[in-house]
Amino acid sequence: MLDAAPLPSYAFGHRSLMWWGTLGLIAIEGTVFALVIVAYFYLRSLAPRWPLNAQPPELPWGTLNTVVLLASMVPNHMLKRAAEAGDLKRLRLGFALCLLFSVAFLVVRIFEFRGLNVWWDTDAYGSVVWLLLGLHTLHLLTDTYDTAVLAVLMRAGPLEGRRLVDASENAQYWYFVVLSWLPIYFVIYVAPHI
């Protein structure tokens, strides 16, 4: 009989069920973003003027948020590496920094919505732009909440190995949130000027 007792009860990367679950979630959510972007360009192809009844969105807020998101990759990467190394001190610092970036982004997002120059119920352009920005905001809110919960767990304990996997996968999901923003930024802020 083989004794499995010395084997670890958790694993990182593709050996973890959490990794596969996160990958599946990213695939589903990425498909939703792609479908909304296709809808945006389909509606644009039917319109004589785009945006229909508004000025293009103001660039400063969306651009500032792009910079904040790209900068957030640094502490997020630090957090992921700390989780995989089991370095609790760096992990706690990484969570604190990631939460600061998340909150900063969400605050700027309020101004970003105001700078769209259109409401969600104004016309098709407004609806699709608000849908894209709203979906991305929902991802930010859920990941910010998840990050806050994990940050508390890293301080309150007990610290189990599977919590390190949770932290690593949370960081992996943040990569998706950041990278999915780049095509959305193009659609919302660059495409109306083309």
> What percent strand?
under 5%
How would you classify the helix and strand content by structural class? mainly alpha
- Amount of helix: over 70%
What does the largest sheet look like?
none
CATH class, named Mainly Alpha
Q: Which architecture would the CATH scheme give at its second level?
A: Up-down Bundle
Catalogue the unreliable spans. none
Mean pLDDT: 88
Give the CATH topology.
Four Helix Bundle (Hemerythrin (Met), subunit A)
CATH superfamily: Cytochrome c oxidase, subunit III, four-helix bundle
**Number of beta-strand segments:** 0
Measured on Cα atoms, how large is the radius of gyration?
20 Å
The succession of helices and strands, N to C, reads HHHHH
Number of domains: 1
Spatial separation of the terminal alpha carbons: 68 Å
Shape: elongated
Describe the protein in words.
The protein has a single domain (14-193), classed as Up-down Bundle (Four Helix Bundle (Hemerythrin (Met), subunit A)), CATH 1.20.120. It has 194 residues and is mainly α. The chain is built from five helices and no strands.
